Amino acid sequence: MRRIAKFATNPVVVALVASLAIAGCASKKTPNNAADLGLGGGAGAATPGSSQDFTVNVGDRIFFDTDSSSVRADAQGILSRQAQWLNQYRQYAIVVEGHADERGTREYNLALGARRAAATRDYLISQGVASNRLKTISYGKERPVAVCDDISCWSQNRRAVTTLSGAGS
Amino acid sequence: MKHVIKAILLIGAMASGMTAFATFPARALVEIDVNKGNVEPLPIAITDFLSGDAMGAEIAGIVAADLQRSGLFAPIDKGAFIEKISNPDVAPRFDDWKVINAQALVTGRVSQEADGRLKAEFRLWDTFAGQQLAGEQFFANKTNSRRIAHIIADAIYERLTGEKGYFDTRVVFIDESGAKTARKKRLAIMDQDGANVRYLSDGRSMAMTPRFSPTRQEITYMSYESGQPQVYLLQIETGQRELVGNFPGMTFAPRFSPDGQKVIMSLLRDDGNSNVFSMDLRSRTTTRLTNSSAIDTSPSYSPDGSKVVFTSDRGGQPQIYVMGADGSGQTRVSFGGGSYSTPVWSPRGDLIAFTKQSGGQFQIGVMKTDGSGERILSTGFQQEGPTWAPNGRVVMFFRDQPGGGGPKLYSVDLTGRNEQAIPTSGFASDPAWSPLLD
């Protein structure tokens, strides 16, 4: 079920994710999809402009290479779509969470998570999102979404998640 | 923690025959050379202290456990004892102890004074030389019986090794519970042997990286309490908390200066990088020590306060750097294969403990302050965060094993020998050793 987190960033499989959510198959261990974010209910067609719409149809997160805070080419497309959506729905304030995998020490990873969040924020600003809507926070390696002892989890935990707050969620 | 009053016990009952024996000792006085590569633990007999209740045996048990965990002593099973000590004020029958190869012997007594205080006294004997090596008595509040035992263990350790002990100390750490994806992290404090655990925060917000003040019953730590990670001070006895500084962004990785008057920490810059600052706790003035477009974090002062060691990835990956306490002369000192972080200066000043990542493993090691003489003390799948015992002979850290579910605390001798698990009821991380208690 962890895979769903990745699929959710791919529009091709959005319908699949949504139908799984409806069918109640979404694992409770997978907090990355719309259903587990408490946005479920009639998740078949997310209301345009809702945070569920953002999470499912746009993709709320990007992933990073080991020890890197460079926005990868595959992440740039996601952030551009995020910016487009955020520029359309301006009622939201935005907090970008930066995360690191567990293969680093605690304090360094807090700093690394912060640098990833800042790189993501800066990319969104470069795509026209107003800087005064954006805040960042680092969770270092303290809030993994995937738990295992190998690279399949670590690559999912090296992430920046764009979360919406303020009006309209 | 109130003071434990101490007095030196002189031997009043040394028989004249004993004196002659002591004048011509068959061998040098018993001692342990802690700097030898491979120390054979010293066989020592620790008799139950005389008392009217169970406390005498309890104190002897705590002393024996402390000494055993140090790896330098091998307490002898009580079942092998021949002489039953009935008067700890007179010399024991040394032959009875030599025959079971007890090279050192501890006797003692614990009693309650009229005012309710505990009085504990002990004598340490060199059985082969037939001499008293130490004798002291202590008065303390009855609730401090474990402390009395640790103080006695420290006195024995110091007399036989020539080094300060570290048993009358505490460890502040993070108690971890709950799923890894939503881990609850609470500040906690315990004696160095795992006893007397007390929780210092309720776990509603994540707390991490606590460190002791060298001079006060106070810790500095980082918490998500305000929503943003920030550095706080906490008075251990009163529970009073205080934010350190008024910075716009994340502050983290705090440590005290050796005089307890400053906190050094990282401050996040707007560009996403982190630099090292110090803040004077009295004047509240802050001083920037690094200004790089990189991550500079995990600063730790040298014990004389003149230098700071820290982690930086300015060279591409995390490595260890040393600078003057004013930020001058920033110099990389780690050059082994892999990355290095969490440097902590030894209380003796001669070594830096670190976490090294290399070949998919995490290692705890030490190096000289110029980076030479690297020695790895422990290797594991995931381990980090060394902290020094106040005598600079033992390092504690935390380790997460695959499938283990969470981290636990371990200690290891400076020689890399004698790794010991520190008992905690739950998962535990981020240990920080206190100075010796007053």
UniProtKB/TrEMBL annotation, chain A:
<dbReference type="InterPro" id="IPR050330">
    <property type="entry name" value="Bact_OuterMem_StrucFunc"/>
</dbReference>
<dbReference type="InterPro" id="IPR006664">
    <property type="entry name" value="OMP_bac"/>
</dbReference>
<keyword id="KW-0132">Cell division</keyword>
<dbReference type="Pfam" id="PF00691">
    <property type="entry name" value="OmpA"/>
</dbReference>
<keyword id="KW-0131">Cell cycle</keyword>
<dbReference type="InterPro" id="IPR006690">
    <property type="entry name" value="OMPA-like_CS"/>
</dbReference>
<protein>
    <recommendedName>
        <fullName>Peptidoglycan-associated lipoprotein</fullName>
    </recommendedName>
</protein>
<dbReference type="GO" id="GO:0051301">
    <property type="term" value="P:cell division"/>
</dbReference>
<dbReference type="InterPro" id="IPR014169">
    <property type="entry name" value="Pal_lipo_C"/>
</dbReference>
<keyword id="KW-0449">Lipoprotein</keyword>
<keyword id="KW-0732">Signal</keyword>
<feature type="domain" description="OmpA-like">
    <location>
        <begin position="52"/>
        <end position="168"/>
    </location>
</feature>
<feature type="signal peptide">
    <location>
        <begin position="1"/>
        <end position="23"/>
    </location>
</feature>
<keyword id="KW-0998">Cell outer membrane</keyword>
<comment type="similarity">
    <text>Belongs to the Pal lipoprotein family.</text>
</comment>
<dbReference type="GO" id="GO:0009279">
    <property type="term" value="C:cell outer membrane"/>
</dbReference>
<keyword id="KW-0472">Membrane</keyword>
<comment type="subunit">
    <text>The Tol-Pal system is composed of five core proteins: the inner membrane proteins TolA, TolQ and TolR, the periplasmic protein TolB and the outer membrane protein Pal. They form a network linking the inner and outer membranes and the peptidoglycan layer.</text>
</comment>
<keyword id="KW-0564">Palmitate</keyword>
<dbReference type="InterPro" id="IPR039001">
    <property type="entry name" value="Pal"/>
</dbReference>
<dbReference type="InterPro" id="IPR036737">
    <property type="entry name" value="OmpA-like_sf"/>
</dbReference>
<comment type="function">
    <text>Part of the Tol-Pal system, which plays a role in outer membrane invagination during cell division and is important for maintaining outer membrane integrity.</text>
</comment>
Automatic annotation (TrEMBL), chain B:
<dbReference type="InterPro" id="IPR011659">
    <property type="entry name" value="WD40"/>
</dbReference>
<keyword id="KW-0732">Signal</keyword>
<keyword id="KW-0132">Cell division</keyword>
<comment type="function">
    <text>Part of the Tol-Pal system, which plays a role in outer membrane invagination during cell division and is important for maintaining outer membrane integrity.</text>
</comment>
<dbReference type="GO" id="GO:0042597">
    <property type="term" value="C:periplasmic space"/>
</dbReference>
<dbReference type="InterPro" id="IPR011042">
    <property type="entry name" value="6-blade_b-propeller_TolB-like"/>
</dbReference>
<dbReference type="InterPro" id="IPR007195">
    <property type="entry name" value="TolB_N"/>
</dbReference>
<dbReference type="GO" id="GO:0051301">
    <property type="term" value="P:cell division"/>
</dbReference>
<dbReference type="GO" id="GO:0017038">
    <property type="term" value="P:protein import"/>
</dbReference>
<keyword id="KW-0574">Periplasm</keyword>
<protein>
    <recommendedName>
        <fullName>Tol-Pal system protein TolB</fullName>
    </recommendedName>
</protein>
<feature type="signal peptide">
    <location>
        <begin position="1"/>
        <end position="22"/>
    </location>
</feature>
<keyword id="KW-0131">Cell cycle</keyword>
<comment type="subunit">
    <text>The Tol-Pal system is composed of five core proteins: the inner membrane proteins TolA, TolQ and TolR, the periplasmic protein TolB and the outer membrane protein Pal. They form a network linking the inner and outer membranes and the peptidoglycan layer.</text>
</comment>
<dbReference type="Pfam" id="PF07676">
    <property type="entry name" value="PD40"/>
</dbReference>
<dbReference type="Pfam" id="PF04052">
    <property type="entry name" value="TolB_N"/>
</dbReference>
<feature type="domain" description="TolB N-terminal">
    <location>
        <begin position="31"/>
        <end position="133"/>
    </location>
</feature>
<comment type="similarity">
    <text>Belongs to the TolB family.</text>
</comment>
<dbReference type="InterPro" id="IPR014167">
    <property type="entry name" value="Tol-Pal_TolB"/>
</dbReference>
